[in-house]
Design brief:
The protein is an alpha+beta fold. Helices cover 49% and strands 13% of the residues. The chain has 22 helices and 20 strands. It has a six-stranded antiparallel sheet with strand order 9-12-6-1-18-17, covered by helices on one side. Helix 2 packs parallel to helix 4, helix 6 crosses helix 7 and helix 7 runs antiparallel to helix 18.
């Protein structure tokens, strides 16, 4: 009988693969239940403790664990399909695959599954930082694949150098393929759920609803103007029009008349709106054109077809004025006041009406009242109680923009002038590096509109009470209110440098959002038209992508055989020694070993016998005997070895 073949040794995945699994799973902790990542890491730790402390699980137990994981995901999500349940199931299967891995092939499958998990990270958060993380992750995965394919013979520094070179060679082809690959409708990243941002804008306006946003620097949207940029005092981006009030809270009402926008100047611009979770699309002034599929409602309010759960790009054209009828029902709605309105408010506006009952004159009287009675603009208004408007007008006389907007609208309605409150964003910061306007959460603002001669006229009481709040950026104005410093020069050099770096980062983020996150079919066609390719259909783009793939494979096959192997330093020194002997006529044969060559060289040149013997001995000990101590002596003797031809 033939002897039974020895069973192969069990292969343990390199520890670098465990590190890759941890890196791929950790970003998902912000989007998936924590126990999914913890389960995957538990199975991974079980695998690496298996060889020493824990026995190998039987096949039946592995199948039971698969069934348990499946039931756990279904019990939590009530389905196995979709982004969250699918990725939860995937990362736990990744841990189970690591638990059963016993061969290099299993280790390669683990790396490929880590790629799929990394794609899930990018779908949830396709940011520029995550893109840089993906490049580093891919480089580390190439190192892991190198360790799997060639466990010995290369140092970690050499593997890292090779992986970095491979990554740098692949980036141009990958970028070109990304540009020309036929795009799906809406962009690659739009099908995945985005973390919903907080714009701070809600349909209800109550005391303190906007003042809490001053601490939030999160970017709500970016605006790119196609033409002259409007001045800061004209950049009012409306989101909600509030017409119904109970004396404390203002809410949107049913608006019917849309009206017509006319009168220049007209402004065309593009908005990059971050996810909000609602349908509101902030627009400038009075929109004339809105994107296809969106709705332009009364009051100049624009609504998207669906809730904004991913980065949304839309282009709008706005005008400065809008005219339209105000029906009898609309007038009653815009004059309605709660029955419990304080009589002092009616007596106050009655004195103004005796002087001049015109709407513009009444508005000036209300603004003059704020100035004469020394109203204060504060970032931390006191509690207004159950009747905030009378308390604000006659007692506290300090508040934030929503307090002034609500009080002014109440005064106008009490005076018989239709009025409403508008909530949105004001101003924004111009980024000279990106050429766009950055609108952050602390730019949320509330102002008023009154009906004058067939159109709605915008009036902002905050601009009268605290003009610095609208002319300066909010952080600078906040320091002024809190510490009493001046606007100019109130920031230290570090604040200025930090602010400038933030502008650079935001400009880079805008370009990333434009050409990566929002790179849809329309954006692709726009880019190709700029490059001179106007008729780029899906068939042509698919053909170009196929040609790029064939070119990449050809380059790999052509350059793969020309990749130089890592040279052994001992062999390099010995080859230098052989070249110096070749100059004096002693040529080493193709299959001649170092000892045989040494004997023949000593016979031809007895005067060099001592040096030839020593160099050959050092090379054999270092190359074949594993004595690295002889490498230094070998290099030194080869450097001093300068044989000369024998004189005739």
């Amino acid at each position: 009988m033939t002897a039974r073949a020895a069973e192969p040794a069990v292969f343990t995945p390199p520890p670098l693969i465990a590190g890759l699994m941890v890196l791929a799973c950790l970003p998902l902790l912000a989007h998936l239940p924590w126990w999914t990542v913890a389960t995957a890491l538990l199975f991974t730790g079980w695998r690496y403790a298996r060889d020493r402390y824990v026995a190998r699980p039987p096949r039946v137990l592995l199948w039971l664990l698969v069934a348990a994981v499946t039931l756990l995901v279904y019990a939590h999500f009530h389905t196995l399909f979709g982004e969250h349940p699918g990725l939860s199931f995937l990362i736990m299967l990744l841990g189970l695959k690591c638990l059963e891995s016993d061969s290099p092939r299993d280790a390669v499958v683990l790396v490929l599954m880590c790629y799929v998990t990394l794609l899930g990270d990018l779908l949830f958060r396709p940011s520029m930082a995550m893109g840089a993380f993906a490049l580093l992750f891919l480089t580390a995965s190439f190192v892991a694949l190198s360790v799997i394919a060639q466990p010995r013979g290369l140092g970690m520094r050499q593997r890292l150098r090779q992986s970095t070179v491979i990554m740098l060679q692949a980036i141009p082809l990958a970028a070109l393929a990304y540009v020309v690959f036929p795009r799906i409708a809406g962009g690659l990243w739009h099908s995945a759920p985005r973390p919903v941002g907080q714009t701070g804008l809600t349909p209800d306006l109550r005391p303190g609803s906007l003042s809490a946003l001053l601490s939030s620097r999160a970017v709500a949207m970016r605006v790119i103007f196609h033409g002259p940029r409007p001045a800061r005092d004209r950049r009012y981006f409306r989101a909600y029009v509030l017409t119904v009030t109970n004396g404390r809270v203002w809410r949107p009402g049913r608006l019917r008349a849309v009206g017509r926008t006319q009168g220049g100047p007209f402004t065309s611009y593009t908005v990059l709106l971050n996810p909000t979770g609602n349908r509101v699309l902030p627009v400038l002034d009075w929109p004339l054109e809105v994107p296809r599929g969106d709705t332009l409602g009364p009051g100049g309010v624009v609504r998207a077809r669906h809730a904004v759960r991913h980065l949304l790009r839309y282009r709008v054209t706005s005008g400065a004025r809008r005219y339209g009828p105000l029906t009898a029902a609309g007038r009653r709605r815009d004059l309605a006041l709660p029955a419990t309105l304080d009589p002092r408010i009616r007596r106050l506006v009655a004195r103004w009406r005796k002087t001049n009952p015109a709407p513009r004159a009444l508005a000036k009287d209300a603004l003059r009242y704020f100035v004469r009675h020394h109203f204060v603009y504060t970032l931390n208004p006191p509690t207004m109680g159950r009747h905030p408007i009378p308390r604000f007008l006659f007692h506290v006389r300090a508040g934030y923009c929503e307090d002034y907007a609500a009080a002014f609208a109440t005064l106008m309605r009490a005076a018989g002038v239709p009025a409403r409150v508008v909530v949105g964003f004001f101003g924004g910061e111009f980024n000279p590096d990106g050429g766009d306007i950055i609108v952050r959460n602390y730019d949320a603002h509330a102002w008023d509109e009154i009906w004058v001669r067939g159109r709605w006229l915008r009036i902002d009481p905050t601009a009268v009470v605290a003009p610095g709040a609208l002319q300066e950026r909010w952080p600078t104005f906040r320091r002024f209110l809190e510490h009493g410093t001046t606007f100019q020069g109130s920031r230290s050099w570090w604040d200025r440098v930090h602010h400038r770096l933030g502008l650079w980062r935001d400009a880079a983020t805008t370009e990333w959002d434009n050409w990566v996150v929002d790179y849809s079919g329309r954006r692709q066609a726009e880019l190709l038209r700029r490059l001179g390719w106007r008729d780029a259909g899906p068939l042509a783009l698919g053909l170009v992508t196929l040609i790029l793939a064939i070119t990449a494979v050809s380059l790999v096959k052509t350059l793969g055989g020309r990749v130089r192997t890592v040279r052994d330093p001992a062999r390099s020194a010995y080859e230098r020694y052989c070249r110096r002997l070749q100059r004096i006529g002693l040529v080493r044969a193709g299959g001649e070993g170092p000892r045989d060559f040494s004997i023949r060289a000593r016979e031809a040149r007895p005067d060099l016998g001592g040096e030839i013997t020593t160099i050959t001995r050092c090379y054999v000990e270092c190359r074949y005997g594993g004595r690295q101590e002889a490498l230094a002596e070998l290099k030194a003797r080869v450097a001093r070895f300068r044989p000369r031809p024998r004189s005739r």
